[in-house]
């Protein structure tokens, strides 16, 4: 049974981790990884979100 969703409170720090199921790789190659970072780089300023 899935766990309940976490609360999303404005102004609170969140720790984010990305892990593949069964510890499998989450990226096929460097191009795939670069795509994630490119999209994150566009999304953070658009949503005025800080990333430390």
What is the structure about, briefly put?
By secondary structure, the chain is mainly α.
Radius of gyration (Å): 14 Å
- Return the string of H and E elements: H
- The amount of beta strand, in percent, is under 5%
* Overall strand count: 0
Explain this structure:
With 52 residues, the chain is mainly α. The protein is 33% helix and 0% strand. The protein is built from 1 helix and no strands. The longest helix is centred in the C-terminal third of the chain and has 17 residues, at 30-46. It is flat.
List key phrases describing it.
52 residues; mainly alpha; 1 helix; 33% helix
Fold blueprint:
Elements: H1 30-46
